[in-house]
Amino acid sequence: MSNAIIKIENLKKQYENEEVVTPVLFGLDFVIKKGEFVAIMGPSGSGKSTLMHILGFLDKLSTGKYLFEDVDVSGLDDEQLAEMRGHKIGFVFQSFNLLPRTSVLENVMLPLVYTKLSQAERVEKAKKAIEAVGLTHRINNLSNQLSGGEKQRVAIARALVNDPSVIFADEPTGNLDSKSGLQIMKILQELNLKQGHTIILVTHEKYTAEHAERIIKMRDGLIESDEAVKNRLIAERVGELK
Amino acid sequence: MNFIENVNNSFHLIKQNKIRSFLTMLGIIIGIASVIMIISVGNGAQSLIFNQIKSQGSNLMAIFPGSTDKEGPPASVMGIVITTLKYDDVKALYDQSRIPEITAYTGYVRGSETAVWQGNKTDTTFIGVSSYLPTVEDTDTQIGNFFTEEEEKSMQKVAVLGSDTWKNLFGDQNPVGELVKIGKQSFRVIGVMRERGTSGFSNQDNQIYIPITVGQKLMLGINHLSYARLKVSDENKLDLVREEVKQILRDRHDILPGQPDDFDVRTQKESLDVLLQITNALKFFLAAIAGLALVVGGIGIMNIMLVSVQERIREIGLRKAVGAKNRQIMIQFLIETIVLTSIAGIVGILFGVLVSFLVAVVANALGYKWEFSISFFSIFLGVFVSSVIGLIFGLIPARRASKLDPIDALRYE
Ligand SMILES: Nc1ncnc2c1ncn2[C@@H]1O[C@H](COP(=O)(O)OP(=O)(O)OP(=O)(O)O)[C@@H](O)[C@H]1O
Ligand SMILES: [Mg+2]
Questions:
Q1: Angle at the Cα of A191 (from A188 to A192), degrees rounded to 5?
Q2: Tens digits of per-residue pLDDT, B24-50?
């Protein structure tokens, strides 16, 4: 097994609805190695989210090749894809996507509900993930009683809880103020540096992107550049992160 | 998720979405409860009518004015006034002694009036009948006497009170010899009937019997009868007697051969058959209403299910995004729907039975002999239809949503 976790070759995507064909990705190639922290940047509409959804098994590619941990994804059926989503990846959305009127603990436990773990194991794992994002004091709050930053931290805990191989974060700081945004970056960076999680992050902000070790820039469905970050920023603890 | 977790989770989700759950359940509750109620009330009403008619004996024959076809009820019962049947016709049947089997007869006329005694008032029905009424209807007085043929012929203003009318006017006091005003006329009370209960939908105890002659001339100013009844000594000769009665009446009414009767003679059994038809039609009508209630309830369930699934497509997307398989989502929805329909079903059954029971209690309190019965068929029908609708409209959209790519479901607006 190579240390490449994600490998795409000439990946293309076009949306086809009601006879309108919208090509979005025009042939992308890259490799992401285990333990890497990659930021994807690019103007709005350049196809960043589309790419993330395909890599995160939420959407299907049109043509090209996608190898995840050396397995060709195109050969997987619905059930196996669900399996991959449940065990291999964690996804953090810009718009949080928490279950409404549901406690922090239950939200974080959601991915484990579909595993064979016992209830006690689920609670234990969820508590650990909640601790990692510093929300232990909010564990029984309902999702609608949280601030935006707290919601996103719950979403990160949820993405973490099944020990995924890759964490995808699509503009996780996009809806947050700079202070909450920094907290999120601090958490993601710690996950990467201290626990060795592979992280792929989409962002508009150069400043945020420079917390990663590598930046892939996209434009109009193509890769414009793919470079290492020269002076990587390290997020400091901002405010109270209990 | 195993089964128990799924059930727990369902309760949890139902609680979390109180309004949505409540609306869904409301549709099911209304559907089931109304089916149970309507069918129970229909059966109760039918039993009520039948028990009363049967209790009056099977050797009675009724004569209604106007001709009607055998299958339907007499025209006069439907509220049409026909004046061709006279008291002399009925007396003639008896007097001619051509038909020895007729042992008693009475005509009927009736009206509503207020009865007053020393300032006590009660709204009541006065009924002009023959002196033979106690024999015909198989009843008697508890105080005093019924009026005699002489009193009837000489148009005495005498009255026999029903037991409720007596209590309303006099309390426990003996009314015999007192003067009671019925409308504008004063009547001397000569007796009180024993308690008789209800017949059809009228309370036989809140009535005043007066001589038919007085009823026709003084009270109503008419000379026809609403209907008449004959008592026949031998039940087996009813058909024979009917033919003779018909012949005599045709002669008296100068009806030429080939012309139809202008009256209708029915035995008690025939009346029962006709009533059976009427009440069956009523039951059919009620069943149609029950069906309508089910459809309305069903549409309610369907709408709420559709709306809630729209709401939940995003949730389905999220669950799929974190690893739920289609099958797991379907099981979750299935169990949730079953839990919801079961709770609603139980509430609906309890509610329907309770209301049916209350109707029976109230009807009995009002003096009707109302049998409280719940048909298992109605419970089955209500529960079956509601749950099938719940399942279909809960699961089909969920199934569609579970087939979407997670991102399409998540993006759903
Ligand atoms: N379901 C769809 N059907 C058709 N076109 C789509 C669909 N989803 C996205 N697109 C198109 O694909 C292109 C890329 O969209 P995408 O969301 O990947 O952009 P993005 O780089 O994430 O932009 P942003 O920075 O604004 O989030 C857009 O032009 C968009 O209109
Ligand atoms: Mg995007």
A1: 90
A2: 788 888 888 888 888 888 888 888 777
DSSP bridge pairs for A7:
A31, A67
CA distance B403 to chain A (A): 9
Residue pairs between chains A and B whose CB atoms are closer than 8 Å? 66
Determine the pLDDT at residue B232: 87
Residue B33 structure tokens? 């409860």
> Domain range for residue B213?
97-228
List all residues 6 or more positions away from B372 whose beta carbon is below 8 Å from its beta carbon. B40, B44, B356, B357, B360, B361
Assigned domain for B304 exists: yes
pTM: 0.68
Pair (B23, B150) in one structural domain: no
Residue type (1 letter), B114 = T
Helix, strand or coil, per DSSP, at residue A203: coil
- Residue A53 φ/ψ region, left for φ over 0, alpha for ψ in the -120 to 50 degree band, beta for the rest: alpha
Residues 6+ apart with CB under 8 A from B216: B87, B109, B128, B222, B223, B224
Residues B303 and B405 in one domain: yes
Least confident of A19-33, A144-158, B166-180, B191-205: B191-205
- Alpha helix stretches (DSSP H) within B232-267: 238-252
> Average pLDDT in the B289-315 region?
76
Three-state secondary structure call for residue B360: helix
Number of domains in chain B: 2
pLDDT at residue A242 tops 50: no
CB contact under 8 A, A99 and B320: no
Closest C-alpha to ligand 1, atom 1: A15
Contact B325 A79 (CB under 8 A): yes
The answer to whether residue B260 is domain-embedded is no
Residue B373 has pLDDT above 50, yes or no: yes
**Average pLDDT over chain B, rounded to an integer:** 83
